[in-house]
Design a protein that fits this description.
Layout lengths: L4 H10 L6 H22 L2 H8 L1 E6 L8 E2 L5 E2 L1 H12 L4 E6 L5 H6 L5 E6 L3 H4 L3 E2 L4 E2 L2 E6 L16 E5 L3 H11 L5 E5 L2 H10 L4 E5 H10 L5 E3 L12 E6 L4 H17 L1 H8 L5 H5 L2
Helix pairs in contact: 1-2, 4-10
Length: 291
């Protein structure tokens, strides 16, 4: 791990020995001023980005439509669109994007390898001990998918009683279906290793309903209208508030957090945030933006 410049300067000050008290006092005063100056220089990711004309961000990648890199190395996705808009508004020339495992994003941020985790995080209390969060960007809640045309007239989870339904392995949504069975729903529950298999079975009519991430489902339908599924338009997520997501900054980067929050508030007011979601087929945007 790199040693922060402030720490280097402070250690240099502490290691000096003066012949006279006055000279020592003057030297100490100068060192304190120097350390304060260096601290001001390194704190604040936005100030750093403005000086370098470049904002260094990290994403987990391959996470369409949230954040990913195209085959031509072009940054795409909801959060990267927001980061590109931020640098445009702040007069910064370039967005430098690093792709890494999701679990590496916060360590990369706190160590200074990146200055902004431009990916979506649940703002948990444990994470708040390490980093700061922006305002809530959107709600990545679950949705219910059915065969196109909704032939079984399914609108809520209770409508799955006596039918078949599933989700992918390890999700709380499988637990929800099993809990309904404990109440006598008699749902044929199936857990899938991959979302593609779930979608294929719903489209073919082998499964009456599927529960998955609303953002991923909407984007899949946008990319392939002939997929043979649809999102249940009037489905009401069970725990929408608990699925709020935000971006992450270092604790010394209040300037970046505040600038992002100002931009986000403006985009919500002028409708430009709606357009970002519409670009990726996430309609109506209010489903994702309002609790």
């Amino acid at each position: 791990m790199d040693v922060p410049a402030t720490l280097v300067q402070t250690r240099r000050c502490a290691g000096g020995h003066a012949a006279w008290w006055l000279a020592g006092f003057v030297a100490l005063t100068a060192c304190v001023a120097l350390a304060t100056s260096v601290t001001a220089q390194v704190q604040g990711a936005l100030a750093k980005a403005r000086a370098a004309k470049m904002l260094v961000v990290g994403i987990s990648g391959g996470d369409a439509p949230i954040a990913w890199m195209s085959p031509k190395d072009e940054p795409l996705g909801i959060t990267l669109d927001l980061c590109k808009e931020l640098i445009k508004r702040e007069g910064i020339d370039k967005l430098d994007v690093y792709t890494m495992p999701f679990s590496s994003l916060i360590p990369a941020l706190t160590s200074g390898r990146i200055d902004f985790a431009c990916d979506t995080f649940f703002p948990t209390e444990k994470r708040k001990q390490l980093v700061d969060f922006t305002d809530i960007v959107f709600y990545n809640s679950e949705t219910l998918i059915v065969k196109k045309g909704n032939p079984m007239k399914i609108h809520k989870l209770a409508d799955l009683a006596g039918k078949s339904a599933g989700s992918y392995e390890g999700t709380v949504w499988i637990d929800w279906l099993n809990d309904l069975n404990k109440q006598g729903a008699k749902i044929g529950v199936k857990a899938y290793p991959a979302v593609t298999e779930l979608v294929a079975d719903v489209a073919a009519g082998r499964l009456n309903g599927g529960i998955l991430d609303a953002v991923l489902a909407a984007y899949a339908v946008k990319q392939n209208p002939k997929l043979g599924i649809e999102l249940v338009a009037d489905y009401q997520p069970r725990e929408k508030q608990a699925n709020a997501v935000a971006l992450v900054v270092r604790k010394d980067s209040g300037d970046l957090r505040e600038a992002f929050n100002r931009m986000l508030a403006t985009m919500k007011t002028d409708g430009s945030l709606d357009k970002v979601f519409e670009r990726y087929g996430l309609v109506p945007p209010s489903f994702y933006l309002k609790p």
